[in-house]
Amino acid sequence: MSDQDRPRREPRTPAERAGATPLDPERLRADAMPVVRRRRRSLDADDGVGRGRWRGRGRLGLRRHADHDDDSLRRRRRRRRRESRRWFGVAGVLAVVAAASGALAWVTDERVEAADAGPPAIVVGSPVLSARRAPELLARPVAARNLRAAVQPVLDAAPPDSCVDVREGGEALVAHREDAPLAPASNLKLVIGAAALELIGPDERLVTRFATDGAPTDGSVVRGNLYVVGGGDPMLTTDTYEPRFPRGVPPLTDLEAVADQIVATGITTIEGSVVGDGSRYDDVRRLPTWPERFLTQGQVGPLGALIVNDGWTVHPLTGVGGGPTDDPALHAAEVITLLLEDRGVEVLGAPTTGVAPEGAATLLEVPSMTIAELVDQLLTHSDNTTTELLVKEIGVRSGGGGSTEAGLAAVRSWLESEGHDTSALTLEDGSGLSAGNRVTCELLASLLEEDGPSGPVSEGLARPGEDGTLDDRMLEEPLRSAVRAKTGSLVDVTALSGWVRTQPGRDLAFAFVQNTDGQVGGQHLALQERLLAELLGHPHAPPDGQLVPLPPGPPG
Fold it and tell me: What is the mean pLDDT of residues 488-494?
């Protein structure tokens, strides 16, 4: 059979498939054997010549020749064995070279270009067992260990009742008493904000409805009452109250514009009264766990489904006054009556409260900002009243009624349904004003990580140097550009949870809560910034790009 007729063997090794000349160990051994046999016959012939000379004429002479010949024979046999091993060794080495060529081509996984002169030489860029072949696997634990070592001085200096949780990609990079139940102060708003977005909906709005129980006879006279039915909008505001808010607050529900819309319907006279209807929520104006000073200081308004100006008794025209009202719905009716009268509408009856009849005809519906915008507001500015009203709205939407108790129960159930451990969770309000609230750093950091650095909760976090609760903190770079966070402050609590963008470009979710024995001081705030400064350098390891396998190349 000619070479042309002989079936071609399919390439088996990566080196052969790439064009390298195949090296068959069995063929190499077969090629070497004739040479070995010829060498062996030559040695045997020499032995025959030697044996033909064994002659002896006496015992002494025979012994003498035999000793001489035996020594020579042994030397020749040893030489022969060495020669045989040498030739068999050549065949074995060639076989190993062939196997290694295939293995090398497999390891490098690189296409080898065949050359006319034979298989080209290849040098592996990175050995098989090099760290470069698993950079992430090896770098992550090193980086995490270095990060924990970097933040350890902060943890050592923090009060005993403190917790820290730093997370990335579902992994806790730093976990220090992360499951300890601690008072979170306003960091609790992160929990309520996330729950409101889920249980109410980010695009939902809270609607204030204006309705009449008497149709205008000629389009201008209301033969009954004008009902203002509260829908829980916390942002019903007059011009004289608006300056109380920081600049940059999202658009408020402007009651001045609402009054203009009512006048634009053609109404000139209301024979009845403006009636405030706050029946959507219960009549609990403040929680028993709040000190009275929280209301008198304006930290939270009296709660209700219909409140104007946070329930603060500022005169809508003069701005005179200031203090929490005892009846937010009545106060709202008074404010709207004054706004209408200022625009020439005659209201014959005195402002009052009540419940709109089922058949009341809707005159106007005034929607609030979206829930997503309200969550942004309450997080950026730590708005206590907005948070507490959203808790009551969650209670309504969950079917439990417009109470704080029902809303908090729905929040807990939602957390459990999402797989969060609530065994250490204690909820007494939504704003974090109650000293009895208890939350873990693990829960805070996990909620942030689930939301993501660009999620609706995270987008509402305050930024250093901008309008919000971080407007006067961390004003120097690089922290100023890297941090977004929710603050939390009580007399003996300081908390900071949010996101930090590391200098290598990684987003880390963090929660740091400190409960102190006495009053919170500057040293506790400084610890927050020290922690963030250490997080900026993560990962404390060579970048993955410096560890990737090097490409194979020619020798040298």
Answer: 97
